[in-house]
Amino acid sequence: MEYRLGVDVGGTFTDLLLIEEKSGKTYRSKVPSTPSDPSQAVLSGTQAICDMAGVSAANLSFFMHGTTVATNAVLEKKYARVGLIVTDGYRQILQVARSLVPGGLAAWIIWQKPETLAPLECTVEVPERLDSGGNIIHALDEDALRRELETLKKEKVEAVTICLINSFANNAHEKRVGEIVEQEMPGIPVSLSSDILPEKQEYERALTTVANSAVRPTVARYVQNLRRELRAQGMAGQINLLRSDGGLMSSEKSEELPVSLLMSGPAGGVSGALWMAKHAGYENLLTLDMGGTSTDVSLIEHGTPRLTRDTEVGDLMVRTSSLDVKTVGAGGGSIAHVPELTGALRVGPESAGADPGPACYGKGGERPTVTDANVVLGYLPAALLGGEMKLDVDAAKKAVQTIADALGTSLMEAAAGIIDIVNENMFGALRLVSVRQGYDPRDFALIGFGGGGPLQANAIGKLTGSWPVIIPPAPGVLCAYGDATTRMRAEKARSLSSRLDTAEAGELVTILEEMAWEVSRELIEQDVPEAEQEVQFEAGVRYQGQGFEVVLPFALDGFVDGGLARLAEAFHAEHEKLFTFRLEAPIELVNLRVTVLGKAANVRASEIDGGNGDPSEAKTGTTTVWMDGMEKQATLYDRALLRAGDRISGPAIVTEMDSTTLILSDHVAEIDHFGNILINPAA
Amino acid sequence: MTATIIQENTTDFEQVDVDPITLDIIENALKNARFEMDATLFRTAMSPGIREQGDAFPLIADKGGLMLAGQFGSFIQGFLNGFDGTIEEGDIIWLSDPYTCEGAVSHANDWLILLAIFKDGRHVGWSAMFGHMTDVGGMVPGSLPTNAISIFQEGIRIPPVKLYKKGVKQDDLLKIVLHQCRMPEWAGADLNAIVAACRMAERRVVEMCDRFGTDCYISATAKLLERNRRAMAQLIETSVGTEPVSFEDYVCDDGRGFGPYKIKCTMWREGGKVILDWEGTDPQSESSINFYLNENMLKMFFGIYMIMVFDPQILFNDGFYDLVEVRIPDGSLLKPKFPAALSCRTHALGRIFDVLGALLGQRQPEFLNAAGFSSSPHLMYSGYDKDGEWFQLFQIGFGGIPGRPFGDGPDGHSLWPGFTNVPNEFLEAYFPLRIDRYETIADSGGAGLNRGGNGISIHYHFLQKGTISIHDDRWFTYPWGVNGGSPGMRSTKILERADGSREVLPSKCDNIEVMAGDVLVYDTWGGGGWGNPLERDAALVAREVRQGLVSVKGARAYGVVLTDDGAVDEAATAELRTVMAKDIKADQIFNFGPSLDELRERCLAETGLPAPVQPVWRQGA
């Protein structure tokens, strides 16, 4: 009965990975996604992979799932009609937002302001007021509230959000308003800002809580349906969903807190990459997850992915923890074009998507894409997906020729240019997560996965100087590995504003213990016994007066003795690393965060057979490629036949069911015990 | 007098061929570097004006000082012309006096840092950034005295000096300057942040030289400028006529009871060149509303407006500068003579944008935007808190974006790039005040097919005795509508005393004492409307009434009548629209509202303030 199933729903495919916990033996499967109801593919895929392994759903102890249901609801703006209740005087909180018009000078001329997430006509005010210390200035007027709720009923809202000014300091009014809403509007889900994000900044807190309400019905429907069907198949184990921060939560919890699922998809990739790379012996990593329309990158230091406090999806930016994944609109389907006025070569953000797709798919696409450029250069062999799909090389050439004509270059130069530009865009994204955060990319290995990552990773490694470049086995289903191998997680944050030099360590410890107990209980409710829990503490710290804090981990043990001073020194050092200077100014502690994690999955990656270093048995032929400005002969290999210890000299192309790896000239790839391809510059 | 740049390595740069792809890569890398400058600044600055509101502007320039990435255009040439000294590797220049740099910065609150970038001993470019300091000393907290009559009253003026000499920080110099400021910690931290941002850009430029070769980088920057010039030349040819067009607009008053002040510009094309002639602009003011306008900065404003209005895809840099000629009369409001006061130049700066927009749109009204929130109103509040500690708030306000061909103007937003409001919960936690109300003003956006954005109403409830200063405009003249759209509402400032009395405050004032319990109702103005309001979807008007953005009465400006339950009364609406259609001037390009004479006549009755007095110019001015 000890099987873990990881399921990752992507735009095109739903990837499944079944792991037998004891042996680490894996089964993998890929079924077409069913965008209208993603659970169909999840359920049929579950059935298929169980059949493949000869087990039944009853054998699954864990079902772990990365989902883009919440993400897509945001991208497609399929929101519930949310009613918002605010403090008197603040009805237009979402309408005014932060007053920011994105872009440069005069960008207002062409900016399209998105609709507010809770319609303004569904936003009502309630007389009440707290000061910033949480003291009551005006009591809550319950009669007035009940009158205002009539408006929300008339507007037929499907979910209600409550966000009152200064509620981060005292949630009493929000709680009472919530009770009255539940009395007056039974059956309507209610979200309180003091539950979802008990932190200063009214707009961000309101927006995040409204976002939670807006996707709640969609996510709840999906999760409930999935759970019902799995139970019907006899699955009795835990059903968990992957959060944006790379942890898991129970499916029931996810119904209450769907805003934590917005980056669930990319989080699976990062978690999977980390798990695989750890086996290969690398804990400092840049991840490169390249799909059809976009590419996600992130940074992992000492085996811990960087977290960010802001989660951005489409034009929505909410304040929830997520893995610090940057997305660039550059993928295999990105379209290359040359604007007439400037004559510059541009790639993306427009994408040919899956339909019609790149010209080489032969489905009617005519515009040149990154994939077409790869075909023209000979990097993509004529058959994709294990031979199911033939590529139309002539169509690709015809498409890329339009770029060559516009630039006045040869066909091959144009194709190479497209690849160079798209690599540069990804390099830009990788800089955001590395150099801009004070990290030198040369101290990291680069792991490339997703459909297109293995093709570009070697070239991007040259730009960043990140070696080795790692191509994990089954790079197309790596997200499912992440889903299957990560841990349960819950967290809680609290706003403070106290100076480090005058704070009482003893008082802080009391607060932290209280918070830790709350979070621990939350996980106990999700069937994670206290004995299996690991608690982590973080502090948000800044120089008094600054607007952004630096997040620092610390230990509670021994905190009373000099913990504050240690925190101060760690902050000075981190500030200097990030921004080149430190200040004499007093240091302010602005928030505390407690994270509780469940036990790590005890799953080993399966090992492959060792060879004699000579890959010739895996060789399937040679092909002509354009590389370094000339034609060259590249060797083709079948990845399934490669053995541990095999060494491959570039130029070479390694093919497998769901992906193609390109090894450039003057580079050498070595296969490790777990089947990872490790690419390094030739000595 | 010009600056001398000392290079240890004087080898000439070699002109090399740059392939188009490398060129694009360098362009992207420059843009990334510029955004890294912003990120560094916002994360390390301390004053709310910079770190929350974003009042700072980055720049990366080529070795000649032309902007490659940034948004306010290059002011480096102006500085180089005014600096009589040497610049060598490791030097960092600091300045704030507009008169020493041809208006590279336009008031003394803006501190400018300039860093010459060297690679292997050769000068390869510049990084620079200026930011608005909350206080630089002078006669009022915030250093923006409304009634100053000379720049000597506006705080410390820093001529171009070296903050770092060959890498060594000049601590005594810094100490002297910070000693003049009421908020030395903020100023010191903000200055550090600006220097760190410039260093970030320096590092990126040097890395690019390493990666592509210095000659390649230098050749590429020239090509990038050339590429922009080519595109702009074509755009100018097609969108600016040889017939001169003129437009004039006003700054309502000078804070001393005189006004309005006219700003006039005439534009035409001679061959491939655009002339922007400000002849007809009023002479300089005796108070601080003068705007020392740098010609190159104006070229950039013009260029970016052209690009945004006609073709937003064009790469934006200084390459087109020789295609534009700017003529500004000496001694005018836009080129005042030393030592004229300059601190409150924000109103004229804003109005320049309305004038440029109107000039460019006149020949092609379909591209024309209405008049907008073309200023940044300020509130300053300072005093001692309950613990006896000095506090000083400088806050920038926002209002209605104008109605646009593109759609409605957003309500209560910023026309300035990157500016955001300060969260009220932050204000309440760090300053002795409460924000009782924070909303946009129904009907304040001008009616139109595309509605002008509403202005904002902020109710500041003061909790400690202190003094306030206010800087705003458009209280006397209206933000105009276009193509049949109506003007937006004007701004007002009302102080409701704790004792129940009520005072109308002038749009520009200093040293107003407030007591605990007083409430300042700070209303900004709305954007003008675009297009015929009778053509606006009646159902949308009804929805905006439910939303509180338009009142039931305000809906009538669109010819829309609502039933008691808020639905569109179709019959009454059709009837009203027929009647109104006779009077509406749908083909009128500009609607300024009443004439200046009418405005004067009604001023006291409508605004509660006396009309400004027509200024009399000094002889020879």
Break the fold down into its secondary structure elements and pairings.
The complex is a heterodimer of chains A (683) and B (621).
Chain A: E1 3-9, E2 13-20, E3 26-32, H1 38-53, E4 60-66, H2 69-75, E5 82-87, H3 93-96, E6 123-126, E7 129-130, E8 136-138, H4 142-154, E9 159-163, H5 172-184, E10 190-192, H6 193-196, H7 202-232, E11 238-242, E12 248-250, H8 251-256, H9 264-280, E13 285-290, E14 295-301, E15 304-305, E16 307-308, E17 311-313, E18 316-318, E19 322-323, E20 326-328, E21 334-337, E22 346-351, H10 370-376, E23 383-384, E24 389-390, H11 393-407, H12 411-433, E25 445-449, H13 453-464, E26 469-471, H14 478-485, E27 489-499, H15 505-525, E28 534-543, E29 550-554, H16 563-579, E30 587-597, E31 619-627, E32 630-638, E33 647-649, E34 652-656, E35 659-663, E36 667-671, E37 677-681
Parallel strand pairs in A: 1-4, 4-11, 5-6, 5-9, 9-10, 13-25, 25-26, 32-34
Antiparallel strand pairs in A: 1-2, 2-3, 7-8, 11-12, 13-14, 14-15, 14-20, 16-19, 17-18, 21-22, 23-24, 26-37, 27-30, 28-29, 28-30, 31-32, 33-36, 34-35, 36-37
Chain B: E1 4-5, H1 20-44, H2 48-51, E2 56-61, E3 67-70, H3 76-82, E4 86-87, E5 92-95, E6 110-119, E7 122-132, E8 161-165, E9 168-169, H4 171-179, H5 184-212, H6 214-239, E10 245-251, E11 261-270, E12 273-277, H7 295-310, E13 324-327, H8 346-362, E14 378-384, E15 390-396, H9 424-430, E16 433-440, E17 456-462, E18 466-471, E19 481-482, E20 492-496, E21 502-504, E22 508-514, E23 519-523, H10 538-546, H11 570-583, E24 590-591, H12 596-607
Parallel strand pairs in B: 1-4, 12-13
Antiparallel strand pairs in B: 2-3, 2-7, 5-6, 5-8, 6-7, 8-9, 10-11, 11-12, 14-15, 14-18, 16-17, 17-23, 18-22, 19-24, 20-21, 20-23
Helix pairs in contact in B: 1-5, 1-6, 5-6, 6-7, 7-8
